Structures are given as structure tokens and as C-alpha cells.
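Quick one, C-alpha cells below:
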């Protein structure tokens, strides 16, 4: 599929070649919207009349919109198009953090679709990973408006919000440095670890991996690690509860994305805290807790990050979620946090959660994705709320088409979020803001987080 050029018209989709596995199935378009966000659209030749608007994960880091991102997302989510749904996805206007910005760009591509191709029978927003948070924010910002969205599908979602959804990565950042002393090294300029990485650092992902390997030998067979490397690796994993196979990706997020959040979005203010956290599971917890770096968050930074990315539970349309029980990136306990949020807002009647016995984050079974969007559509059309048992029972029909398996566990319920992630002392989240604080945030414009 050909990505749009920078000279493409900003508000009219241009026909383009579909991904190879959609060539005979759909007509595809690309373009750039009025906020300079690139997008991709696919309309099946046997269109069922409904639209799936996709919110991608990440966030990717970069200055501008990536023209390849929405094209790649369409290729990744052809299952939706093969089920008969039109598909539209935005690359977002820039890289870096900004949940509300991404939600606005997602809404923009929906409006553009309506303007160019007409109003669909029904419209669903789908979010994956951080895109789950984006899509959930779309539901809260636009879902109550007549004719906008009829339902939401959130898969592998980071649904605890930014103000607490990354606390386990905060813990990783400080625990790693306690054992490894190489990020930064004693000979390098020092900075508080809540920054992730100093703003002017030229460290690359490859450089970070080299330091992680130096300290833990994570990329080597266990028999090739030194005794110190093995102990460091064991203690880091035992204390943070992060799976070994995703240790590098979590540390990368706690380095480069933290830098983006702090320096590019919050004007250098600290939204993170490990105040009051008692770390355990190491070979010497007393020494660890005495020596690990401690810091408290700036309440204004927490407020602004919370407003941008935390969820209020103010949902007025059906929301279906799917999450792997052994998700190594967005732990399944994010779902417990989301349910608690909706229960607190007295909106849990709009929520159905499903769980699968899989161990992946970015790619679950296509039969399950097809089953999920169909179950959501049936719920919206009939008004009959499905159960996890009924959704489990309907999956084999889709597996006969996709042959990727059905792995639902309809009886699973995730433990509370605090059972997996150490709670912090203090802090201010958006749902708890007073009306005065909300007006104050609106006056300052959400420094840094706004587009």
C-alpha cells in the first residue's frame, strides 16, 4: 500500500493501493487531515454499512505525523475489513504522549469519513494498547453525542490511565538503577530518575539495550551470565513483577517515553512518585529500600497528566474489552482498574469484559477479534447485553474461518490493580478533582499535554 505524500490534499482522501491481503476485498484511501495527521481508510466491496474507527497504541516518539503508521495499522487490522466493516485510522498529528490529542485526531478521521463517504449505519471505536486508553477517552469525550459512536472495543488496553498506569515502570526505573548504576553511569551527568532520561541525552535504544545487557546479561543464556548479572536480573524481575521477555521494552518506555512526558508535555515537571512504596522480593529488601532513589510528584504535573489520560467512567455506550490474562506489557489488572472506574461512576452496566488464556499483548487471535466486534455489534443492534460465556460460545464459528484459535476463559476475574502495582502515597487524579481545580486546569490549557 502506498503512503500519502506530503503534497496530498489535507482534507480529501486519495485512492491508493490496498495492502496485498485486501486487494480483492476493499477500496483504500489515504490522506492528511487539517491538523496534518495522516490517515488510512478502507471500504469493503461487500460493506455491511458500519465503520470501525481505530486508535493505535504506542505512543510512537517523533516530531510529526508518520504517514506509514496508519497504513501499517490497516494492514494489521484487516480482520475488521474482512468482517465487512469500513475501517479508518489516524497516525495522530505528532508522535509522543497526548491522549486527548490522539482522541481528537481519532474523532477527526471519523468526521472526515462521514464527510467523504456518508454516515455509516453504526460506528465503533477500537483501541489497542495505549490506543485502548485513547479509545476510552473518545468514548467519554464524544460517545454521548448522537450519531457519533455506537459502541467501543478495547483490546489489551492501558486502562488505568497515565497517572498510575505506568507506576510499575517508575519502580523499574529506580530499581534498575539501584542494582545497575549505569543509567546514568557515575561518570555521566546526573539527573532525577523520574525524568527517564535527561533532555539532551543522545542515548539510543541500542545503547540502552547494551547497558541492560551489561548489568543483567538478559539477552544471554543463563549459563553464560555472571553470578552478579544473574542476581541483578533475578532481583529486578522479582521486585517489579515484570516478565523477563518484556524487560527491555518496559525499560525503554521508562526511559524515552518518560522523557517525552516530562520534558515535552509537562514542561519539566514530575508526575511520578514512589513515595511510600515498600519494595520486596529481592535478596536484601532492607538495603534496597534504604538505597533506592525516592521522589514525590509535583501535584500540578499529576493533575495535568491525569486530566489528559485518566478515565472518569462517564460512559453512555456499550464497551466490550478483551485482554490476555498473561499480557506481559499491559498487565491484565488494568481491566480491574477500568471496571472500578466505571463502577465508581455508576456506569458498569455499559461494560462487558472478556479474558483469554494467551500470553501476548500486541496480537491475539484473529478469530477472537472477529468474534468481539460481532458481539459488540449484536449488543448495539439488539440491546441485549452479552455475557462472557455467550461470547466464548460464539467464537468457534469464526475460528472455522480464521483458524487462529479461541482461548477465552469466561470465569476469569482480574485481581485489583493494587495487587500487581505498588500503590503510591498521596497524588491527585482527574476524577477526584474539584470543580475549582477543573476550571483552573482549563485556564492554563493543560500545559504541554495539549496538541
Amino acid at each position: 500500500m502506498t503512503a500519502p505524500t506530503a503534497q496530498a490534499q489535507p482534507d480529501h482522501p486519495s485512492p491508493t493501493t490496498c495492502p496485498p491481503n485486501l486487494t480483492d476485498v476493499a477500496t483504500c484511501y489515504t490522506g492528511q487531515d487539517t491538523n496534518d495527521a495522516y490517515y488510512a481508510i478502507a471500504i469493503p466491496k461487500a460493506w455491511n454499512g458500519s465503520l470501525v474507527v481505530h486508535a493505535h497504541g504506542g505512543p510512537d516518539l517523533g516530531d510529526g505525523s508518520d504517514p506509514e503508521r496508519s497504513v501499517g495499522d490497516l494492514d494489521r487490522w484487516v480482520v475488521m475489513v474482512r468482517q465487512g466493516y469500513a475501517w479508518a485510522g489516524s497516525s495522530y498529528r505528532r508522535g509522543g504522549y497526548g491522549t486527548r490529542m490522539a482522541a481528537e485526531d481519532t474523532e477527526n478521521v471519523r468526521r472526515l469519513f462521514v464527510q467523504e463517504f456518508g454516515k455509516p449505519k453504526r460506528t465503533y471505536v477500537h483501541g489497542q494498547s495505549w490506543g485502548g486508553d485513547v479509545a476510552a477517552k473518545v468514548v467519554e469525550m464524544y460517545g454521548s453525542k448522537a450519531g457519533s459512536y455506537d459502541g467501543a472495543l478495547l483490546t489489551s488496553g492501558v486502562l488505568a490511565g497515565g497517572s498510575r498506569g505506568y507506576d510499575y515502570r517508575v519502580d523499574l526505573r529506580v530499581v534498575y538503577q539501584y542494582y545497575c548504576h549505569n543509567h546514568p553511569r557515575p561518570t555521566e551527568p546526573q539527573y532525577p530518575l523520574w525524568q527517564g532520561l535527561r533532555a539532551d541525552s543522545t542515548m539510543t535504544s541500542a545503547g540502552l539495550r547494551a547497558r541492560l545487557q551489561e548489568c543483567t546479561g538478559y539477552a544471554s543464556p543463563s549459563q553464560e551470565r555472571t553470578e552478579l548479572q544473574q542476581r541483578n536480573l533475578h532481583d529486578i524481575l522479582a521486585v517489579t513483577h515484570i516478565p523477563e521477555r518484556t524487560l527491555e521494552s518496559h525499560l525503554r518506555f521508562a526511559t524515552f517515553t518518560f522523557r517525552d512526558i516530562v520534558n515535552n508535555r509537562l514542561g519539566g515537571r514530575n508526575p511520578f512518585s514512589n513515595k511510600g512504596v515498600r519494595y520486596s522480593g529481592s535478596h536484601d529488601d532492607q538495603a534496597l529500600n534504604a538505597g533506592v532513589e525516592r521522589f514525590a510528584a509535583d501535584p500540578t504535573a499529576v493533575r495535568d497528566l491525569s486530566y489528559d489520560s485518566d478515565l472518569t467512567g462517564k460512559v453512555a455506550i456499550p464497551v466490550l474489552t478483551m485482554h490476555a490474562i498473561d499480557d506481559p506489557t499491559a498487565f491484565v489488572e488494568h481491566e480491574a482498574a477500568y471496571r472500578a472506574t466505571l463502577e465508581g461512576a455508576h456506569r458498569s452496566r455499559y461494560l462487558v469484559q472478556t479474558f483469554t488464556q494467551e500470553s501476548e499483548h500486541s496480537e491475539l487471535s484473529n478469530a477472537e477479534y472477529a468474534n468481539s466486534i460481532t458481539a459488540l455489534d449484536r449488543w448495539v443492534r439488539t440491546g441485549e447485553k452479552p455475557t462472557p460465556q455467550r461470547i466464548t460460545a460464539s467464537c468457534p464459528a469464526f475460528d472455522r474461518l480464521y483458524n487462529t484459535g479461541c482461548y477465552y476463559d469466561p470465569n476469569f476475574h482480574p485481581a485489583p490493580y493494587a495487587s500487581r502495582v505498588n500503590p503510591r502515597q498521596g497524588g491527585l487524579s482527574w476524577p477526584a478533582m474539584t470543580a475549582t481545580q477543573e476550571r483552573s486546569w482549563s485556564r492554563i490549557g493543560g500545559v504541554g499535554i495539549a496538541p
